[in-house]
Amino acid sequence: MKSLKSIIIIVLLVFIMSPVVEAQENDIYVNPDTGNDQNAGSLEQPVRTLNEAARRLNESNGTDAVTIYLSEGIYGLSATAIFKPANRQFTRENRLTIRAVVLPDDPEWNAAKMPVIISTMPLELEPGGRKDPLGGRSYGIQIETSHVTIQGLRVLGSPLHERPAEGMVRRNYPIVREGRDLEDLRITQCLFTGDKHVIPNHLAILASGQSIVVDHCVFYNCKDAVVFWFSDRPAENCEMHHNLMIGNYGAAVWSWTCAEDFKYYNNVVSNTNIFWILNRDEQRTFSISNSLVIGYNVLVNKGGGAGGLGEAGNPDKIKFGENVIIKKEGSVQIEEDPTKRNYLHIIPGTPGADLGAGLFIKK
Q1: Is a pLDDT exceeding 70 seen at residue 311?
Q2: 22 has pLDDT over 80
Q3: Are 155 and 183 in contact (CB under 8 A)?
Q4: Is 362 a member of any domain?
Q5: Any bridge partners for residue 152, and if so which?
Q6: How far is CA 31 from CA 5, 27, 213, 261, 295, in A?
Q7: What's the CA gap between 141 and 59, in Å, rounded?
């Protein structure tokens, strides 16, 4: 009888614990300092590169969630990290998450805890088999599956000379999704930084398809912040909210493929060349609310592309709702002390700080 009870207890323990073990087995841990790509990919034995994590995901199968945890450190991408599993299907609930181990709202977080992504791969001179007329391009992280979250990363561009001659734009796209039929991509709590003279961040997020949400991100001195690229139909359920965009020398928002349900709120744009670029046909109208645009050269353009910023657009296509402040001159005050928790955020108590734009979700 005692033996039977022991067997029952063991069976119950296995039943209770098995989902936890299964979830742990699906996760992949990456550490660029202590990892090895021959390791198991566990917390105790992490792999070293993001490309290896992508390879393992792409060769896996199943329908359950997968989380790829990136420890702090520098991730030099010598080739595009492509996430395109052939035999694994994600859902809105059971999704692929690529995230930092420590997130901005964690008490132990500081900016040095963020995994740093930098593209070092050669430029593709003939992407897709066709010569690039602008001198070549490269992709950093490429997402080609639905239901994905990218969270808590510090993302740089590539240390290349962006404009070596008239008519050339050599460029890196740090985060890309090409699939026009894909849906549900969320990029949150990421810090995108660049310097056009040293390490240009040409276009932080280039995404096609439906349901693209960018929230609580900081874009600092990137050429372009977000381009809603192509889709088989107008892209529904897209959002930008609680983002801080500083010093764009291209444009902050490109709404090329967005449907009119695009939600834009609690964003701050300062010291930008162009605020918003519409699709060339200007068929759709967009509403924005509870946001600040301060310091810009052009409010609205249309068209454009990798080689140019388009032409004058119709500003009436942007409907300014409640609590929207538009000022052609001026700037926000940014904390530039790298030892402060709110580094590269608006200084509390100064204009725009009340909108909550930046990396922190919990206030």
Answers
A1: yes
A2: no
A3: no
A4: no
A5: none
A6: 44, 13, 27, 40, 40
A7: 17
Q: How far is CA 173 from the centre of its chain?
A: 11
- The answer to whether 266 touches 292, Cβ cutoff 8 Å, is no
Question: In the chain, what are the helix, strand and coil shares in percent, each to the nearest 5?
Answer: 15, 35, 50
Domain membership flag for residue 237: yes
CA distance 12 to 3: 14
Question: CA 135 → CA 142, 158, 160, 304, distances in Å?
Answer: 20, 14, 12, 17
Structural domain tally of the chain?
A: 1
What percent of the chain lies above the pLDDT cut of 70?
Answer: 93
Contact status, residue 300 vs residue 313, Cβ threshold 8 Å: yes
State both tokens at 155: 């993302």
Structure tokens, 211: 């349901």
Is residue 299 in some structural domain?
A: yes
Token digits for 281? 């046909």
Residue 209 tokens, joined:
């398809």
| Structural contact between residues 152 and 187, judged by C-beta atoms closer than 8 angstroms | no
Rg over CA atoms, the chain = 22
DSSP bridge partners of 213 = 186, 239
pLDDT given for residue 2 in this prediction: 47
What rounded mean pLDDT belongs to the chain?
A: 94
Contacts of 89 (CB under 8 A, 6+ apart): 63
- Which residue segment(s) compose the domain that 277 sits in? 2-355
CATH of the domain at 169: 2.160.20
Q: Which amino acid is at 252?
A: A
Cβ atoms within 10 Å of 7's Cβ, excluding its own? 10
User: Does any domain span residue 217?
Assistant: yes
CB 125 within 8 A of CB 134: no
* Mean of pLDDT values over 95-110: 98
Residue 315: CA atoms inside 13 Å, Cβ hemisphere, count? 7
Q: What letter does residue 17 receive in the DSSP assignment?
A: H
How many Cβ atoms are within 10 Å of 67's Cβ, its own excluded? 17
* Helix (H) or strand (E) segment spanning residue 21: helix 2-26
Query: CB–CB of 141/117 below 8 Å?
Result: yes
Q: What is the dihedral of CA 127, 254, 224, 136, to 10 degrees?
A: 10
pTM beyond 0.90: the answer is yes
Output the pLDDT for position 10: 45
